[in-house]
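Database export, one record per block. Field names are fixed; values are copied verbatim from the stored entry.
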Amino acid sequence: MSLANKRIILGVTGGIAAYKSAELCRLLVKAGAEVRVVMTAAAQQFVTPLTFQALSGQPVLSSLWDAASGDGMEHIHLSRDADLLLVVPASADFLAKLVQGRADDLLSTLCLARSCRLAVAPAMNREMWAARPTRRNLEQLAEDGVMVLGPAAGEQACGEIGLGRMLEPNAIMAALPGLMGLGALAGKRVLITAGPTFEAIDPVRGLTNLSSGKMGYAVAQAAAEAGAEVCLVSGPTCLATPAGVRRIDVQSAAQMRQAVLAELPCTVFIAVAAVADYRMDVTATQKMKKSAGGLTLHLVANPDILAEVAALPDAPFCVGFAAETEQLAAYAEAKRTRKKLPLLVGNLAQDTLGQDAAELVLFDDQGKHPLPRADKLTQARHLVRRIAHLLND
């Protein structure tokens, strides 16, 4: 990815993850960006300014009272020609500062006085991440238009395991096209469904599908990498939200349909989710007791979300998925024709369910295009490139 001529301000706050910011700085410069680093006093307890100066080739700024600009207005001038202000890592304390509009050092003042986009990559202990004040702060940041990247789950410096670990530099780099409006889908709104749905039978039982959500999440990541504004409507999964993607969690097919319709209009709708075909006509309010005589469930059809969206007068570019167990080409093409889709992705369910790799076939008006077996993110990137090609054809 080229970031030639892009000006990025890299803010670094206090936390052990600050050492990863040095690698991010290196990757940004390697990609062609001009990087100016601004460090808080706490950040300098973990990594020295000299490290970032050597990596960026620019003096590191840390004080409101630095006279480098000549007029003492560095906190104003810095963001005026910047394309992005990226705070990595962003501590719990710094997130709170942003919400409160505090401006007691150079970085917080710069964030308040900025005229460019602001993104943060949080890093903190799992309990700090889960704390109610932090959750409230994140909600306010989203409302204020601040883009939040991560965090990831994993082992933390304190020895605990959970959410709060900063995204790796490569993952942050992959999210930058979406943040900066670059890539083949720049300026496009992409709506994606992923994962299974869960249809309650009673308070403790339900109907669902064998879907890990991995393919849908990979497509969401690939679309964000291509510069799209991505909304992911997800059924129950244990997957982390891809960087730069807005996620809406749902359970049932009806909830998924409601969320999808509420997010329209969009440029592209990609229906990856394995939506249950049927649900209970009436969900039991109490646990159904086992009977020696067996049990009969009365089911009704769920709405076909993809067909409904594709039939709208102002329908987006719709992409469907067909997981079959036999006669893939015949069944997939029949589904594409029936729903009048410009593009459909077919695969054999027994070869892909729950796995990290997939062998796919793309079906469109120009024929079928096999994608040899590869990891799902690679396949998702192929799919996104095909969508971009068809949109611009």
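Remark 1: The two ends are 23 Å apart (CA to CA).
Remark 2: Residues 7-179 form a domain with the Rossmann fold fold (CATH 3.40.50.1950).
End of record.
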